[in-house]
Write a structure and sequence with these properties.
The complex is a heterodimer. Chain A is mainly β. In chain A, 0% of the residues lie in helices and 57% in strands. The N and C termini of chain A lie far apart (37 Å). By secondary structure, chain B is mostly beta strands. The termini of chain B are far apart.
Chain lengths: 110, 113
């Protein structure tokens, strides 16, 4: 039921790029991306609807391949503030069920 | 300002005791969710509700109960049957039909005394 994210953890130096993947075994209507700092609530980054639309948010963008039930989050020229755990959240085509992915811990070091 | 409020921020439970976590939203969202997060882990769905007076179990509902008597409120009771309740609990609301993100409260950290 839970979407699988990869990698589980990644360490970057400032300015490097990263890609986080989210895969589901079920047909999806939308994919959400959130970032969570330790001990805090997740913060919304972006939502992608089925149709393969790619969205951008500052230096963070994402794509959604509905045929493969996959989404990828792209972080370019990473900053220290990008550190945290990234979760995808998926809404299925039917039933309005929503599940969060397994999470990816991202650490940016100077 | 619209938002979602969880209380208390910290809660301690004694053995054999039931405790209730509060979640209130004024976003006029139909759907509300409860998640449990253990240290270093992801968000696991406990219960969710899409309309008043109706709710469904998530993946880890055992030892928990909820009610949805009002659209704005979705309290979670952690019963004595939940043997390992220590975790960070997050409540979220969602305007399902408006392609909007889930909105989260600040969370309640529950510990056993």
């Amino acid at each position: 039921q839970q979407p699988v994210q990869s990698p589980q953890a990644v360490i970057l130096r400032e300015g490097e790029d990263a890609v986080i993947n989210c895969s589901s075994s079920k047909a999806l209507y939308s994919v959400h991306w959130y970032r969570q700092k330790h001990g805090e609530a997740p913060v919304f980054l972006m939502i992608l609807l089925k149709g393969g639309e790619q969205k951008g948010h500052e230096k963070i963008s994402a794509s959604f391949n509905e045929k493969k039930q996959q989404s990828s989050l792209y972080l370019t020229a990473s900053q220290l503030s990008y550190s945290g755990t990234y979760f995808c959240g998926t809404e299925r085509t039917t039933g309005n069920q929503f599940y969060f992915g397994t999470g990816t811990s991202l650490t940016v070091i100077p | 300002d619209g938002g979602i409020t969880q209380s208390p921020k910290y809660l301690f439970r004694k053995e054999g005791q039931n405790v209730t976590l509060s979640c209130e939203q004024n976003l006029n969202h139909d759907a509300m969710y409860w998640y449990r997060q253990d240290p270093g882990q992801g968000l696991r769905l406990i219960y969710y509700s899409q309309i008043v007076n109706d709710f469904q179990k998530g993946d880890i509902a055992e030892g928990y109960s909820v009610s949805r008597e009002k659209k704005e409120s979705f309290p979670l009771t952690v019963t004595s049957a939940q043997k390992n309740p220590t975790a960070f609990y997050l409540c979220a609301s969602w305007g399902v039909y408006s392609n909007q993100p889930q909105h989260f409260g600040d969370g309640t950290r529950l510990s056993i005394l």
